[in-house]
Amino acid sequence: MKEVVLKVRAREKKGKEYAKKLRKAGFIPAVVYGPETDPLSLEIESKSFSALLRKGLGENVLITLSLDDEKNGERKVLIREIQRDPVKGDILHVDFHQISLTKKLSIQVPIHLVGTPEGVKEGGILQHVLRELEVECLPTAIPEKIEVDVSNLKIGDSIHVADLKVENVEVLSDPESSIVSVVPPTVFKEAEVAVAPTEEEPEVITEKKEEEKKEEEEKKEEKVEQAKAEKKPGEGDKEEKRKEKK
């Protein structure tokens, strides 16, 4: 793994007001802690630390803190946390963890995918599920990243933690965990369109109306016939009366 040297100086004063003055002066407040050492407050030059991060040297890089006094000397550390301003993104504080080069430690290492899967070329979708691998190793053996070749993956294929071979480290992540897979493309079914009524339906309605109309006409004719039948006897009586008068 890469190892870098970072010049720092001990910080005697503490508190929010002093931290603000440090930042204005171009320094970052920091602290070093560890299982076998007392916490030590530090001041880091902002430009030096920002340059280190721009080079891609982050949490998995072994850093030698070079202090400006003989009492503290040099300390081997890893970056544990970087606090930033939520709006501007400026670095507000850095936590370092002091380590022993002879003792193993547990650490998360980023997984980097290499290549373009065959399944993706055929229309499949690449799903990167696990992005970090937990390993245990000596500080000098910490890998910067773990590369996983996915170029041979076809649709339906996947790579699990158990498939990886990482030298000089013990993998602590679940062997059954899926790291990456290629799944079939998602197919969206078209919404069913409502079927328009056929031309036969209006004809049925028309037929019903015509039948109703015919029934009404028949009823009218029956009424007319009944009316005529009622009028005939009356007319006969009138003729008989005329004859009697004669």
Question: Helix proportion of residues, in percent?
Answer: 25-40%
Q: Separation of termini?
A: 148 Å
Q: What's the CATH H-level superfamily name of the largest domain?
A: Ribosomal Protein L25, Chain P
CATH topology of the largest domain: Ribosomal Protein L25, Chain P
| Poorly predicted segments | none
Helix-strand sequence: EHEEHEEEEHEEEEEEH
General description of the model:
The chain is of the alpha+beta class and 246 residues long. The protein has three domains: 3-99, Ribosomal Protein L25, Chain P (Beta Barrel), CATH 2.40.240.10; 106-183, RNA Polymerase Alpha Subunit, Chain A, domain 2; 197-246. Helices cover 28% and strands 35% of the residues. The strands form three sheets. It has a six-stranded mixed β-barrel. Strands 10-7-9-12 form a four-stranded mixed beta sheet, with no helix packed on it. The model has no long low-confidence stretch (mean pLDDT 82).
Highlighted features:
246 residues, alpha+beta, Ribosomal Protein L25, Chain P, RNA Polymerase Alpha Subunit, Chain A, domain 2, 3 domains, six-stranded mixed barrel, four-stranded mixed sheet, 4 helices, 13 strands, 35% strand
Please provide a brief summary of the model:
The chain has helices at residues 16-24, 46-54, 118-121, 200-245; strands at 3-10, 27-34, 37-45, 62-67, 74-84, 91-98, 105-114, 125-128, 132-137, 146-149, 158-160, 170-171, 178-183.
